[in-house]
Each structure stands twice: as structure tokens, then as C-alpha cells.
């Protein structure tokens, strides 16, 4: 009961911030840090994911929690006195695309994650009043599937239209620190909060035992990075697009963004080309680069569009967003509709990671392997299980079965795991069947 009251106190403070931010959209908040007390840090700890990898100090969430009250009191004291030092993040590289490229992520220490969460809890109620409807990434009560639903509705409304597919080159690695500070200061004038953000930007990155200090970028991994990215793109892209661009172009245009991944749906071809030219200059002003080869305009008009027929292009192009390829197809009733399926690159990457996992863990007990593989398969279905994507889900399950049998067969030299034997094993350890979690419009 006592802890519930404390959470309610934090919620009350956050609601008060939100009301003030909503009433005064131009207000710069000069006094926020006094809201951070021990109850605020306890709630930040509760909201921090406990299963993540440890940072440079090697401390796990469980170890931190063993002496939680003393740790939080000490953290609060250092924050208030200005003596908190942001430790370097531990850099790890994860596969990107087909796996040839990697994406660097930074893993903060657990204590740093708690403090980042505490600051995000301060910033969120302010910026949630400011952010535009087209922004979906890393925001409360908004998901990638919400963005995909809006994308479907808009493309159907305009009969497919023209899609501007934009790729920002190394977005998180090239964020300009001075621009971040200036944009944040429009709303956040509290010195303690701004200094903490500055410390995180300058914290440094540890890789192979060496620490270096990049002059730009915000390491992916902590929760402050997506918040800063959203603030950056709110001013650089979203607000500029709504207030400056849309009034001067023909037809309708809708921006749908999830972090740095976004498309714009146009009803007018000329407007799409006009905005593509403007975007490169706009981003260049803020130190960002539009990838020239991956940024393109897609003619996504309905297959029966008369203009398309005259141009001798019967089949619309496809485009990718949020792990799915979007294309025109027939519904069960025989009507043309916009459909989506798992991107081939995403599927290839996921299957490759499954093969690697099966290889690494092939000597573990079969039951243990089955439990972990089932968890991975269900996780894939939970995201990719959308209406009309059944074939790709079945392909995925088939490839997981192949990977599992292959590496069970290589547990020893006898090579005894034939398909017949594997199918008997499957009756005891069946992998989950494909399931549609997101019933869409098709």
C-alpha cells in the first residue's frame, strides 16, 4: 500500500508537469530537478529493465538491488550535488540488414540506466504535449504497429499515392551535440537536467578496453538516447514539415515516423519530388545526411490507376518500413488492398541468428533448447504475425526446424538425427505454430 502511494505521488507530479506544458507550449522549464527525490528514483528503478547486459562496471540489476536503498540515496546525493559522473558505455556491435553491416549500441551501467529513466520520466510529460501525431517511436501507448495501421489507412485513402522512403545515414552516430543542447534548451532550462544530458553525451565509449570520446552521436542502448532523438527530429523534421512544408505543396502529405525510420505519403507526384529535394538541405543544416542510394520515391499508385496504365507500368513498386515490405495484393474477397509481409532482409537476419544460436547451444539438453527456441519463435510471431503474412511465418518456422535438426545432427560424429527421427522428437517438443497477433484490414 505504501509503495502504491509513492507511485501515485510520482504520477501526480508527472500529471502536473504535463498540464503546465500543455497550457504553455512556449514555456522553458527552469525548475525540474527538485521533483527528483528518493520516491522518484525508486519508481525509475521499478521501470528499468532488469535483464539487460551489465555495463563497464559489470554490476547486474540483481546486485544493485541487494543494497537498493543505500544505492539510491547515494545516487540522489550525487545528482543533487552535481558530482554524478556518467560512466562510459560499453560498446557492442549487433547485425544490421543482412548481417554484412553492424550497428553499434552502447550499454550503460545499471545505475546509469536508472538515472536516465528518472530524467526521461521528467522530460516525457513535457514533450508528449509537443510531439506530433506522426511520431510513434519510443513513446507511451504508441507502437510500431500503430504506425503501420496509420500507414495502411493513409495509403488506402489516397489510392497508394507516392511514397518518399528516406534513409538517414548513421543517424544516432552523427547527432550533433551542440544542436541537441540548443534544441533541448527550448523547453528545458533546468541546469541540473541539462548538465546531466551533457554528461551523457560526453560520457565516452569503451571498446576493447579503450575509452574514446566521440564529438558527435548519442549511443543507442540507454533510454535517454531515443528521447533525445525524438526531440531532435521533432524540431528538425516533424514541426518543420507540418508548419513550413505542407502549406507550400500541392495535395495531401502525411509523415509517419518511428525514431529515425520514416516515410511520407503524398497524393501528388510533384510534391513528393519537391520535398525530397528540400529534405537533404534541411538535414544538412543540422549535421545529418540523407543516404542518396536508399532514399527514393516509390510510385505506389493502385494497380488499376489510369495514369499507371498510360505509362505502361501495370505493377506498383513496393517499399519497406518497420521490418515489413508493403505491396498491393488481393484480399480474400478479391479486392485490391495494401498488404505487408516480413522484409526478406529481416527474415534472413533472424534465421541467421537462429542458426548461430543452434550451433552454439547444440550440446545443451534438448528440452532446454526447445524452450529457448520456442521463446524466440513466439517473439518473431508477436511482431511479424500480421494479417496476410502467414506464408512468411510458415517459411520462418520451416527454417528454424531445419536449423535445429542440422545442429542436433552434429552433436556427435554418428549423424543420427535423420528427418524421420527429428519428426518423432517434434511430437514431444513441437515448435509453436504460426499465429496472427495483429489482425489488420486485409
Can you describe this structure?
This protein is an alpha+beta fold. 50% of the residues lie in helices and 13% in strands. It is built from 16 helices and 11 strands. It has helices at 2-23, 38-47, 61-66, 68-81, 110-130, 144-157, 171-174, 177-184, 191-201, 224-245, 269-285, 306-310, 344-360, 366-384, 390-409, 419-428; strands at residues 89-96, 101-107, 162-166, 205-207, 210-212, 253-258, 261-266, 296-299, 319-321, 324-330, 336-342. The strands form 3 sheets. The protein has a 4-stranded mixed sheet with strand order 2-1-4-5, with no helix packed on it. The protein has a 4-stranded antiparallel sheet with strand order 6-7-3-8, with helices on both faces. A hairpin with a 2-residue loop joins strand 4 (205-207) and strand 5. The longest helix is centred in the first third of the chain and has 22 residues, at 2-23. The protein starts with a helix and ends in a 14-residue tail after the last helix. The mean pLDDT is 91.
Sum up the overall morphology in one term. globular
Radius of gyration: 25 Å
Strand and helix order: HHHHEEHHEHHHEEHEEHEHEEEHHHH
How can the largest sheet be summarized? 4 strands, mixed
Total strands: the figure is 11
The low-confidence parts are none
Tell me the distance between the termini: 46 Å
Number of helices: 16
Beta percentage is 5-15%
The helix/strand class is alpha+beta
Q: Mean pLDDT score, rounded?
A: 91
Helix content: 40-55%
| Order of adjacent strands in the largest pleated sheet | 2-1-4-5
Amino acid at each position: 500500500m505504501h509503495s502504491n502511494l509513492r507511485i501515485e505521488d510520482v504520477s501526480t507530479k508527472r500529471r502536473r508537469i504535463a498540464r503546465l506544458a500543455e497550457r504553455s507550449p512556449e514555456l522553458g522549464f527552469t525548475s525540474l530537478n527538485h521533483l527528483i527525490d528518493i520516491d522518484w528514483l525508486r519508481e525509475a528503478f521499478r521501470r528499468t529493465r532488469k535483464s539487460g547486459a551489465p555495463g563497464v562496471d559489470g554490476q547486474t540489476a540483481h546486485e544493485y538491488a541487494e543494497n537498493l536503498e543505500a544505492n539510491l540515496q547515494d545516487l540522489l546525493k550525487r545528482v543533487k550535488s552535481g558530482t554524478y559522473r556518467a560512466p562510459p558505455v560499453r560498446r557492442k556491435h549487433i547485425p544490421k540488414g543482412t548481417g554484412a553491416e553492424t550497428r553499434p549500441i552502447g550499454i550503460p551501467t545499471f545505475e546509469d540506466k536508472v538515472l536516465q529513466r528518472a530524467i526521461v520520466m521528467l522530460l516525457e510529460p513535457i514533450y508528449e504535449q509537443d510531439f506530433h501525431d506522426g511520431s510513434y517511436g519510443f513513446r507511451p501507448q504508441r507502437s510500431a504497429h500503430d504506425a503501420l495501421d496509420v500507414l495502411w489507412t493513409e495509403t488506402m485513402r489516397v489510392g497508394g499515392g507516392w511514397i518518399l522512403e528516406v534513409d538517414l545515414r548513421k543517424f544516432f552516430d552523427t547527432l550533433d551535440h551542440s544542436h541537441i543542447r540548443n534544441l533541448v534548451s527550448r523547453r528545458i532550462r533546468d541546469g541540473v537536467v541539462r548538465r546531466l544530458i551533457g554528461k551523457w553525451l560526453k560520457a565516452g565509449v569503451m571498446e576493447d578496453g579503450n575509452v574514446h570520446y566521440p564529438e558527435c552521436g548519442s549511443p543507442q542502448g540507454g533510454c535517454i538516447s531515443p528521447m533525445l532523438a525524438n526531440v531532435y527530429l521533432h524540431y528538425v523534421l516533424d514541426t518543420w514539415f507540418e508548419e513550413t512544408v505542407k502549406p507550400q505543396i500541392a495535395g495531401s502529405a502525411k509523415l509517419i515516423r518511428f525514431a529515425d525510420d520514416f516515410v511520407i505519403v503524398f497524393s501528388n507526384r510533384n510534391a513528393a519530388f519537391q520535398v525530397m529535394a528540400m529534405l537533404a538541405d534541411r538535414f544538412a543544416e543540422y549535421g545529418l545526411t540523407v543516404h542518396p542510394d536508399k532514399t527514393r520515391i516509390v510510385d505506389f499508385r493502385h494497380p488499376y490507376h489510369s495514369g499507371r496504365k498510360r505509362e505502361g507500368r501495370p505493377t506498383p513498386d513496393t517499399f519497406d518500413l518497420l521490418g515489413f515490405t508493403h505491396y498491393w495484393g488481393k484480399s480474400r474477397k478479391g479486392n485490391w488492398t495494401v498488404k505487408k509481409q516480413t522484409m526478406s532482409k529481416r527474415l534472413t537476419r533472424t534465421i541467421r541468428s537462429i542458426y548461430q544460436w543452434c550451433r552454439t547451444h547444440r550440446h545443451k539438453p534438448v528440452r532446454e533448447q526447445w524452450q529457448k527456441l520456442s521463446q524466440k519463435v513466439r517473439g518473431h510471431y508477436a511482431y511479424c504475425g500480421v494479417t496476410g503474412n502467414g506464408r512468411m511465418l510458415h517459411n520462418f518456422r520451416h527454417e528454424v526446424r531445419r536449423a535445429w535438426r542440422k545442429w542436433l545432427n552434429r552433436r556427435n560424429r554418428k549423424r543420427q538425427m535423420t528427418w524421420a527421427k527429428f519428426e518423432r522428437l517434434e511430437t514431444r517438443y513441437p515448435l509453436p505454430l504460426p499465429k496472427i497477433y495483429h489482425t489488420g484490414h486485409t
